[in-house]
Amino acid sequence: MADKKEKEVKKEMVTVLIMGKAYKVPADATIMGAIEYAGYQIKRGAGCREGFCGACATAYRLPEDYKIYTGLACTTLVEEGMWLAQLPAIPAQKPVYDIEKLAADVTAFQVIYPEVFRCVACNTCTKSCPQDLEVMDYIQAAKRGDIDMVMDLSFDCLSCGMCAIRCPAEITQFNVGVLGRRLFGRYLSKESRQLKKRVEEVKAKKFDKEFEELMKMTKEELKKRYYARDME
Ligand code: FES
34 alpha carbon to ligand 1 midpoint, in Å? Predict the structure, then answer.
């Protein structure tokens, strides 16, 4: 009986390699869960833990498979034989620019991210996006100066950086998307009456009492309030 139970428990475990060392972890764990199960404390490379912040980029290989895969550690499930490496940050140049001095057309990309024009349309960036965004398409849109399209296609980008890891043209696609969205916000978006009203309300201290109340809450109380909120 004890044997049978043991076998059942064993069946639910898989072996993964974390930085080259083998660990048995629950088969239904996310990569992040497996790393913590193995005893590591994740100090960099974790944020929301729910697939929203892009902090947990991971590179991995699978047995008998030459490809390098990428994924978010908090949402990608482990697989038998996975070889994992956490990427606490993706190195990327971060140009400083004054949005007021840029025009909402192709010249902005020519000046700030000229490497965009080296894009060879290999689609590697799109294939590596954990959000399934059409990354290459928004890079092509940037080349045409189509700011609307850059904004639209990159809108759900988490800036996890995985698109940029293997780009042969060395483009940092996620930063290009940020520029497109900034240009759109500064020059092309229509004025939002609701936003204007809300900003005025904030300035008039309409929500100060509620903020003070929130600041005094414990983590548990905040969680309860968060999950009980009205979803729009
Ligand atoms: S921790 Fe935020 S996306 Fe994974």
Answer: 15
* pLDDT tens digits, 174-199: 999 999 999 999 999 998 899 999 99
d(CA 56, ligand 1 centre) in Å: 5
Residue where the block lists tokens 């996310």 = 30
Ligand 1 centroid–CA 136 distance in Å is 23
Question: How far from the centroid of its chain's Cα atoms is residue 37's Cα?
Answer: 23
Domain parsing of the chain, residue ranges: 2-86, 99-188, 194-227
Q: Which ligand 1 atom lies nearest to the CA of residue 56?
A: 4
Mutation choice for ligand 1 from 49, 86, 131, CB with most ligand atoms inside 8 A:
49
Which amino acid makes up residue 90? I
Q: What are phi and psi of 157, to 5 degrees?
A: -65, 135
Residue nearest to atom 3 of ligand 1 (CA): 51
- Pocket (CB within 6 angstroms of ligand 1): 46-49, 51-56, 72, 74
- How big, in percent rounded to 5, are the helix, strand and coil portions of the chain? 45, 10, 45
How do residues 56-97 score in pLDDT, each as one tens digit? 999 999 999 999 999 999 999 999 999 999 888 888 888 999
Distance (angstroms) between ligand 1 centre and the Cα of 29 equals 15
Compute, in degrees rounded to 10, the torsion defined by CA atoms 15, 17, 21, 24. Answer: -20
DSSP string, 150-195: HHHHHTT-----HHHHT-TT---HHHHHHHHHHHIIIIISPPPHHH
Q: Give the closest residue to 165 by CA, choosing from 87, 110, 94, 75.
A: 87
Class of domain 2-86: alpha beta
